[in-house]
Amino acid sequence: MTETSSAGSLPISTITGDPVARVPADATIADAARAMVTCDVGAIAIGDDPRPAALVSERDIVRAVAAGRNLATTPVVELASTKLVWCDAEASVDQVAVRMMDRYIRHVLVEHDGALVGIVSARDLLGVYTDFDS
């Protein structure tokens, strides 16, 4: 077995350490951007539900800026994605990587017992694979 396949067989829960960053459902785009900077994350869940229905990413905010949206007054839910992709906390790193590639996305929400326990990014996965190559 190669080191890469060893990395790929790890449960995704091994790389979901920090609590999920969130903003309230009534937050503005500016609020979400500030929260991303404060939490040092590239995506943030919208609302306090155990299983949120929306997620906003840095790319979404860049698109809003490019479109000239008023960041201070526009609700973040207007640009947040609602077609969320989930995986179970016990899914392997390889399974999540394939899901990201198949759907051409950068973030997957991780659940355990029906509740959000983490958000995994493509960068997180790259870190797992490169750590095993070192």
Structural write-up:
The chain is of the alpha/beta class and 134 residues long. The protein has a single domain, classed as CBS-domain, CATH 3.10.580. The protein has five helices and six strands. The protein has helices spanning 3-8, 29-39, 58-66, 93-103, 122-133; strands spanning 22-23, 43-46, 54-57, 86-88, 107-112, 115-121. A three-stranded mixed β-sheet has the order 1-2-3. Strands 4-5-6 form a three-stranded mixed β-sheet. The longest helix has 12 residues, at 122-133. The two termini are 16 Å apart. 25% of the residues are buried.
Main attributes of the structure:
CBS-domain; 134 residues; 5 helices; three-stranded mixed beta sheet; CBS domain protein; alpha/beta
Query: Strand-and-helix sequence, N→C?
Result: HEHEEHEHEEH
Helix content: 25-40%
| Fourth-level CATH superfamily | CBS-domain
- Rg from alpha-carbon coordinates: 15 Å
E-strand count? 6
Main beta-sheet annotation: 3 strands, mixed
What is the arithmetic mean of pLDDT? 90
* CATH first level: Alpha Beta
Number of domains: 1
List the strand order in the largest sheet. 1-2-3
Shape: globular
Q: Using the coordinates shown, work out and report the CATH topology.
A: CBS-domain
Q: How would you describe the oligomerization state of the chains in this entry?
A: single chain
Q: What structural category do the secondary elements indicate?
A: alpha/beta
Helix run count: 5
Percent of sequence in beta strands:
15-25%
State the end-to-end distance. 16 Å
Pfam families: CBS
Organism: Mycobacterium parascrofulaceum ATCC BAA-614
InterPro entries: CBS_dom, CBS_dom_sf, Diverse_CBS-Domain
Protein name: CBS domain protein
